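**User:**
Make up any protein.

**Assistant:**
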Amino acid sequence: MNAEQDDFTITFNRRDFSGPILTTAEVSTEKLSWSAFGGPHRAVFSAMRSTLGRRPLFERGGMLQNLLELASLLRCGVMVRDRENTPVWWGFVEEVTVYVQGVQLKVSLEGLYNQVRVQYTFLSPDNKLADQLETPTAVDFQSQREFGIREKVIHRRDLDDAFALSLRDTFLSLHAWPTSELSQRSGEGTLRAQVRCSGWFQTLSWRNYENPEGFYANTGPGPGVFPLGDSAAHRTIAQSFTPGWDVFLKYAYFRVRKEGSPTAALTAQVRSTSSGVPGAVLAVSDSLPASSVPGTKYAWLRFTFDPPYAISSGVRYWIALHPAGVDAVNYFYFKTDENMNYRQEGHFGRYYDQASGTWLLIPSITAPGSQPDLVFRLVCVSDTGGQLAAIAGAGGQFFEKIKTLSTGVQASPYRMQGLDCLAEVEALLKLGTSSKRLVLASVTPERHLRFTAQPSPEDADLYMDDQSRFYTQQYVPIPPYRPPVGRYVRLAATTRVRLPWDRNRLPACFIACAEYFPRSGRVRVENRIR
């Protein structure tokens, strides 16, 4: 090893983080990389023939012993320290490849899944596509104890129930544990082993994220209409719902058409619950003029609550639609659902009978005595900082702590697209904060995940020369294995930093990612957001 490589100490830790692993295979560093969106990103280590333990790798029995030793490092923790014993990179082993004479053997976490379910559809007897179904989840708990949870959702069309279950179980049996991959090499080449690693932030991709909260809707289909605003008895109509999160209601949608030429404007209301029926008005939306309501067909009308109204988890609310006046000839028709498709059990629609002063059940023509629902959609929002914590908490099985921030940006927390946690988190990072800055993510050596706001370009206090070497304002060099990822730097115009001329003339650049190659001492940086 050269002097640069001697600066590093590489240790492997047990999968349960109980302590270091004593291995005879000594490895050297080929590449380290970091990202402003997750901290330590990728690392590549190598073990040459002369460093693979006391016994030569290719002696009889020695090859198998060392191969198994290296392969057993999968999902083990990795820590790289400098000569001052300070951590500079940390993560886990993702892949091990051993090059032996004319072949290579690879063992990887790619393709390992120990929690599997199948989402599928099937054709009905009349050759029409039926609803989407889902099998129960099958789990290999022993694999999860060794490597953590790696989830797979298989999507298939035109399956029956038995086929879907068989597909799930077969897939799990073939993928619950790492498998070795053997391939030929062109020529014998150098005898070596390579260990590829990833940062802990990447494990967010191992689990999918779904959150049914923040979007409450009944779109039918089903028969049912109700006259609204034709009399005092039909002045207000309401639907009950219960949120599962603390969120803010921003939009309410209803399907409405008009009869004749009403002039009464429409507003949506959030109401409390009193003795099981709508109670006091808590919030009122913007007003929608009757002229914007179509007369020939039902349309989705949107009502906006500005500012969005805070609703609490587990509390029963009513969303209501209210016309400003009544007219026996010119009024509205409201779409209801007599098939009762709304999935929140125990919730239904009511209308207010002003003559009796009571809230009555909406009448059903097709099923007298039933409790029809309204056709409606509610879109809620929450601070994306809280969503980051929730998503990372759902998928971050190796993080000891998660610290987030208030971004000031509100978006719907509803997630049913089947994306993994990493994809969901990265989308929110790019959405940024209300101050138009990105959200950054970092992971400490103790596996504490932190979300922070991107600094201001005005805070740039570091410099980079034309060879990607970093310096402080006092021209003190920064080690190449400690690149200022996630910070703004200024390009030095000469081999030395001149103040304040460089600060005034040259704009600050954001360091989004950096790679360091110890053997050559080369550093590559990018300010591009990947």
Remarks:
- The chain has a mean pLDDT of 87.
- Residues 457-526 form one domain.
- The chain has five domains: 3-109+179-198, 115-175, 220-374, 381-453, 457-526.
